[in-house]
Amino acid sequence: MVSPIDPTSAAFLFAENRSMPMHVGGLQLFKKPEGAGRTYIRDMYEEMRDVQDIAPLFLKHPKRSIGTAGQWVWEPDEQFDIEHHVRHSALPKPGRVRELLELCSRLHSTRLARERPLWEAHVIEGLRDGRVAMYTKTHHALVDGISAMRLLQSVLSTDPDERDMPAMWGARPKRAKTSKELSRVEQSLADVPIQALRTALGITAEAAGMPGALVKTISKGLKNETSALSLYAPRTLFNQNITGSRRFAAQDWPIERLRAIGKKTGTTLNDVVLAMCSGAIRTYLLELDSLPEQPLVAMVPVGLNAKQSQVASADGGNAVGAVMVQLATDLHDPAKRLATIHKSMRDGKEALSSMTPVQIMAMSALGQAPAILGPMLRMQGIVRPPYNLIISNVPGPKTTHYWNGAQLVGTYPLSIPINGMALNITCTSYDGNMAFGLTGCRRTVPHLQRLLNHLDEEVAALEKAAGV
Amino acid sequence: MVSPIDPTSAAFLFAENRSMPMHVGGLQLFKKPEGAGRTYIRDMYEEMRDVQDIAPLFLKHPKRSIGTAGQWVWEPDEQFDIEHHVRHSALPKPGRVRELLELCSRLHSTRLARERPLWEAHVIEGLRDGRVAMYTKTHHALVDGISAMRLLQSVLSTDPDERDMPAMWGARPKRAKTSKELSRVEQSLADVPIQALRTALGITAEAAGMPGALVKTISKGLKNETSALSLYAPRTLFNQNITGSRRFAAQDWPIERLRAIGKKTGTTLNDVVLAMCSGAIRTYLLELDSLPEQPLVAMVPVGLNAKQSQVASADGGNAVGAVMVQLATDLHDPAKRLATIHKSMRDGKEALSSMTPVQIMAMSALGQAPAILGPMLRMQGIVRPPYNLIISNVPGPKTTHYWNGAQLVGTYPLSIPINGMALNITCTSYDGNMAFGLTGCRRTVPHLQRLLNHLDEEVAALEKAAGV
Fold first, then answer.
1. Which spans are transmembrane here (chains A, B) (predicted)?
2. What pLDDT is recorded for position B125?
3. Residue A116 pLDDT
């Protein structure tokens, strides 16, 4: 039962090498329910391990051989071993968040072996505050960051008393749904064909195939015909070749605080998130004495409504485009930085709305398939990076969710640094908090965890500047 | 700085696949020194991680490319990252030996990625009795089981007060040695060229190249011309194709108890070890209702003195041959089993001493390169396995050893099951105990850990039968 791999997934398999593992990760923190026993975490692990049926997505592995004419194909894993994929781990003492982030950094550094289905999940005990952590790792050939988050959401419930909920990788039985189950996402994402899953960010096979439109878009950008595309980002330490070692740092801030800054200054929540990143990166680079004179440029994926984009993605939602945002890292004043970012973002979105659907799709590909972009840029004679880093903001559930009674108290994304783009910042909102997940090459981005402190200082600086 | 890989190492790289990872493992248990602080294990980990110089053996990884004409070569890892190789892990609660063996089983199931140097070491905390565990994993292309044990020994000391001892992978500084250091193995094994390391078991490139002598030896065995070689082992559940999942079980017994049985019955310590295995396997197979009528045959590597073997290995010690031992699993009476094993072993050694050096070397290859043996046997029209399992007994240090004050209280080997040979038993002696390490394919050998109970029962049964 061999099935073909769509070109986008195949591109991620081709692009992967030792320095650039192509998997996305997720870190979830759960609070044990009241009255949880001593063996609660072990039971949780066993429940996740002992699923009756695994969804097909999590059972196949990629294969390339003479028999498949050198093409990558999906093949069911005849030796599938759930204990390889679902693991019970523990943190060394003293079990602080620091030890958790170190473990996640290490787990995120290792490539998934292609001889097995491309995913892993670790139920982690030993946090001294008693919370349970779960780190999941899925190859980008299976899901992108957005789909991974939706997949997680699809097995959670808003009802703390619901039980018998499946693990993310469990196949959902085809039976009449109870009203409780209807409150969850209607169709299990794990049962949806991969191709449909991957459309969440509007990537199509054509985009991954680097069509003429993308080349045209880049050429336009070179000639500065559209301000949505900047190809004049300064060189920074983030824009070097990377190694395979990862450092992950994560923290969240109350959305209320960020929104208050936005209200006072007439900017959006997303503008404030970008201003936080801008200020933190500025301080970080200043400390390392390597802040360039020119402002850094971030590639920011943005949602577009169907009218703007003229294309709707397969799930009937909005399409996504990419805007190049001037981060104003040359400015000392937080208020001025926020204002500049706000203007840059608005200009970018406007430019985007005047682009053709194919151009927008090509723009998305810039952010979504950066690994395959490199060679093409060089083909076009472009040696400087078109942007310094990717900052994305993925909206998550707004209300409190549970898995079999365990309250999800935090969820943090781990992303994919690539050559020339050593730092990735992905934010997700959940239950009133904005979570920042920073994934970087440990060698190229030294002391990455310092950015967390700088982000925190920046919230305070923005509040002060806005007069909140 | 590319260097060629010797044919034997290359053979292990070629033979490796998802079902047959080709690494050997070691599990060591340490007792913390008196007055060890709360951060003792973390400090121990950091000491091992922060070595100044890594021995060349632990810095290179194998590479094969068009540039190397398709040949495997060693290449220094330009992106060497010690944190990938030396890891700090913890056991889930309740932190029994069971959780430790589960973790080791899992770690031993995963292949080493070839893009990095082929080794890993895990400093493991969380044992409820307060001991520290260390699991190490090294590719067979770097070291064999014996060399791995000698490598470990080379960094240990008999002096509990000695400090500043290097990690196994540390390069030893070339300086005048103190008298204390002289008490350790004179030359650091890690600094010895790989080829020399691998000779410990007498494997030569010719043997791995499957020379005519091996084919001749096997043909002779077929015709029953030498009793050192049996090709009439019955089919058992151990002799099937395996998967990549491993189960590891380990335990030790006082050598004094085993020696007492030997003394009373006029048999050797090694005979008693084999009788324990025989009895345990008999009970195990009976419980599964799959004990064959014919007795099982074990391949047992034995040491030969220089006169017997007419060849000395490179380190001036003894060469090693292989004897096929009738395990007498058809007999109910433990005393009769032990007597049969003793006779079979003696006959085998005698036959071995009448073989030519090349034949002996070829016999070693049977045990040492079993993965490359399979195709050759089929070439010779042999479809049944020549033996049912490998049982080896590797002598270790007789006295108490320490690493920077931490007392080594147990050391257990993890070996390599292969297709057709799903269970491997390796024993090592240390400080008055005989440690049994059982490594098997988890799917092919169900409930492998039951063998530990059966081994324990068998010691008692043998004691009773011998009248100890």
1. none
2. 96
3. 92
Contact A297, A304 (CB under 8 A): no
Q: What is the residue type of B6?
A: D
The pLDDT value given to residue B214: 55
Residue B6 CA to chain centroid, in angstroms? 21
Cβ contact B106–A87 (<8 Å):
yes
pLDDT at A135: 96
Instruction: Write out residues in chain A with pLDDT < 50, as ranges.
Output: 174-177, 179, 181-211, 224-226, 306-319
In chain A, what residues touch B127 (CB-CB under 8 Å)?
Answer: none
Q: Which amino acid is at B411?
A: T
Six token digits for residue B69: 């004409």
Per CB-CB distance under 8 Å, the chain A contacts of B125 are 92-93
CATH class for domain A3-171? alpha beta
For residues B315-343, b (16+ Cβ closer than 10 Å) or e, as one string? eeebbbbbbbbbbbbbbeebbebbbbbbe
Q: Three-class SS of residue B421?
A: strand
pTM: 0.81
Segments making up each domain of chain B, as ranges: 3-171, 210-398+411-466
Give pLDDT, residue B198.
44
Nearest CA in chain A to B79: A243
Is A210-398+411-466 a domain of CATH 3.30.930.10? no
A80 is written with which tokens? 């599938």
> Mean pLDDT for each consecutive 10-residue tract of chain B (468 residues)?
75 81 93 93 94 89 81 88 94 95 95 93 96 94 76 88 89 52 43 42 38 55 53 84 93 98 97 98 97 92 55 41 86 96 87 66 56 53 70 88 95 88 93 97 94 98 96
- Whether B447 sits among the annotated catalytic residues: the reply is no
Query: Are A18 and B113 within 8 A, CB to CB?
Result: yes
Q: Which residues of A are catalytic?
A: 140
Which residue numbers of A have CB closer than 8 Å to B's CBs?
A: 17-19, 38-39, 41-42, 45, 79, 81, 83-84, 87-93, 106, 109-111, 113, 115-116, 125-126, 243-245, 442-443
Q: Which of A84, A111, A125 sits opposite B109 (nearest CB)?
A: A84
Which residue in A55, A50, A28, A248 sits closest to A143, CA to CA?
A55
Q: What is the DSSP letter of B189?
A: G
User: Contact, A452 vs A277, CB < 8 A?
Assistant: no
- CA B421 – CA B446 distance, rounded (Å): 14
Asked whether the domain spanning B210-398+411-466 has the same topology as the one spanning B3-171, the reply is: yes
Note the pLDDT of residue A416.
Answer: 87
The pLDDT of residue A188 = 46
